Amino acid sequence: xxxxxxxxxxxxxxxxxxxxxxxxxxxxxxxxxxxxxxxxxxxxxxxxxxxxxxxxxxxxxxxxxxxxxxxxxxxxxxxxxxxxxxxxxxxxxxxxxxxxxxxxxxxxxxxxxxxxxxxxxxxxxxxxxxxxxxxxxxxxxxxxxxxxxxxxxxxxxxxxxxxxxxxxxxxxxxxxxxxxxxxxxxxxxxxxxxxxxxxxxxxxxxxxxxxxxxxxxxxxxxxxxxxxxxxxxxxxxxxxxxxxxxxxxxxxxxxxxxxxxxxxxxxxxxxxxxxxxxxxxxxxxxxxxxxxxxxxxxxxxxxxxxxxxxxxxxxxxxxxxxxxxxxxxxxxxxxxxxxxxxxxxxxxxxxxxxxxxxxxxxxxxxxxxxxxxxxxxxxxxxxxxxxxxxxxxx
Length: 394
Description:
The chain has 2 domains: 17-157 and 179-250, no CATH class; 271-333 and 343-393, no CATH class. Helices cover 32% and strands 11% of the residues. It contains 15 helices and 11 strands. A 4-stranded antiparallel β-sheet has the order 1-2-7-4, sandwiched between helices. The chain has a 3-stranded mixed β-sheet with strand order 10-3-11. The protein has a two-stranded antiparallel sheet with strand order 5-6. Helix 2 (73-91) packs antiparallel against helix 6 (180-198). Residues 1-44 and 53-74 have low confidence and may be disordered.
């Protein structure tokens, strides 16, 4: 879900912040025996970008993190605690789990500061407030030793989607079901309380579901859950990017998830960059929110630049294009199965006529459990008018 994630922040969510993130610093990858489909083990095979994008050579050899040698008291204790925490995360319904050592994200802070200085955060002023706090867990939770990152799959089968009669506008996959903030909040708080019980008296933990000063995507990379794609979203090399992230900062010392050197990454693939209709991915690993359909249809207030509006490609809330074209999603994305996101509150293709008739009261009441509530009737109607106008032009 991704600074936001995520996508954000990902989050890229308020407006689903899972869709946007600044470029990451060092991208480490997990041991194949620890990269999981759910919490099972499954070896990593060839990089799907190699065949699709004519990649030459290995797609980014990623460096391992040094950890205390197995058998040392510190390693054994913190590793056992991590195992218990992972089991609890699975019990609570999370599909992925990893741990990173709490430390200052110095390189990410530099990138974030540059990104903000260039104005690429658009009107999202909360991102410009105190970037140092966002990159240093000690300022959020003094004494923080570990950053626990969990993921939840929202890749619900499209057969469960509803589609209104045409003309209709497209809704991003994450926004068709329940708001992930609501879905993940309770289990993440339960995980935080469990970590407190694992530790000594005085152990403290703070959970965040894309609503606090935490760079979820960057921590997910360090926790071994994947790597940052050129579209800036987190990609799990076994299962793609259709998942939300949650983070728990904790003063409990847990052994970081060990990621030995393995081949993974985007390589020469640039499918997401080529496919973006508004050229929002201005260069690999750098997204300009001012041009992004997800930002414009969800977070932006007021009128939209006609030059960008005419390139919406039918999207009325969010956009999935960069994820849909990614080889990791096309070849490896695992269906979510029974999922808290299976209940479809909003159609995948939403009647423009219905959207134009929405009232603010109806949006608040009818979509109280849905991410589309964020934009409100006025924003949804604006988006519907744009897509309807583009249909007329075509």
